[in-house]
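Sample pair:
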Amino acid sequence: MLAFNEKGIYCALADVYIDPWKPVKKAIISHGHADHARWGHQQYITHISNVPIIKHRLGDIEVSGVEWNESFSIRGVKFSLHPAGHIIGSSQIRVEYKGEVWVFTGDYKTEDDGVAVPYEPVKCHTFITECTFGLPAFKWTPQDQVMEDINNWWQQNRDDGKTSVLFGYSLGKAQRLLKHLDTSIGKVYTHGAIENMTDVLRTQVEFPETTRITRETRKEEIKGNMVLAPPSAHGSNWIRKMVPYVTASASGWMTFRGARRRRAIDKGFVLSDHCDWQGLLESIKETDCEKVICTHGYTDIFSRFLREQGYDARTEQTQYEGETAQLESENERESA
C-alpha cells in the first residue's frame, strides 16, 4: 500500500506522499523538523498544532490541519493522524484500504514529556518505524531524574559564579527543557532561533518567561543564569558573551562519552525525543503488527533482531536524519 521511491513514501492509490524529501503535489507531514517537513510541496496536510510550526519555518504554503483521530479520505484511502509524542504536533500517520492498515511513525517517543501530546499505540498490519536509537546500549533515565540533574547543575554553576549554557534543538528539545527548568534558581536567556520558535509555540503550551539575547544584552545580566542555545551556537562568536560559562548538551547521543568529547561539551545529559531500545520494542509489540519496516537509525541491527523475534522485518532507505547536528543547523537557519 505504501512504496518507497526517489521522492519519499508514496501511496499510489491516493496519489499522495508521506513526509517526502523532494517536491510533490500533495504531502501528509508527520511533524515540523526539517528532514520531515520540507519546502516545495504544492499542498500540505498535517496535524492542526503543527500548522503554525511549518508555516513559520516554510513561509507561505498551502496547508490544512486535521485533529487527532480525524479520518479523511483521498481517492478511497482512509488516513488519520495519531499522537507520536516526539515534539508538539508530531503524528503517526495511519493508512487504511480495504481492511489493511499501515502506520508510519515519523519520529516518536513513548515517554510523556509534559509538552507534546503523549504517544498512543495504533493497531496495524505493517508498522514503519524509525530506529534512531535502535541499540540495546540506549536506555533512557526517566525525565524527572534528568531534569533534577540539570537543575542541580545549574544551581552549582550559579554558586560558582558561572553561566550555564545548555544546548538543545531549537524545535522540540529546547521547549521540553524550558518547560521543566527550575526558574527559582535564576532567569532563562535564549538564542534567537530558540526564542522565535518558542514564541510560535506559546499559544499551545505555557512556558516560563524567557529573555532573548541581543547585541545590547550585557554579560553581567546573564552571569549565573541559564542560556538555552542550539548546538550550532557552540564555538561561535555569539557564545563569548557568556564568559565565564559551563556548557552542557541534552541529547540521546550523550549516552556515549566520546560524543561529548567530540563536541567539546563540559557535561552531557541523556535526554532524547526518540524511543530507546526498549521503547521501540514495546511500541512494535503494542501494534500487533506482522510486518515492520525500519527506516532511519540502526536499521540493519534492529531489523535483524526483529526477525529473530519472529517479525517479518526489513529496512528501507530514506533521507530522514533523526537526532543529528546537521538537522539542528538546518532548523536554526530556518528559525532565526
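The chain is about 25% helix and 25% strand.
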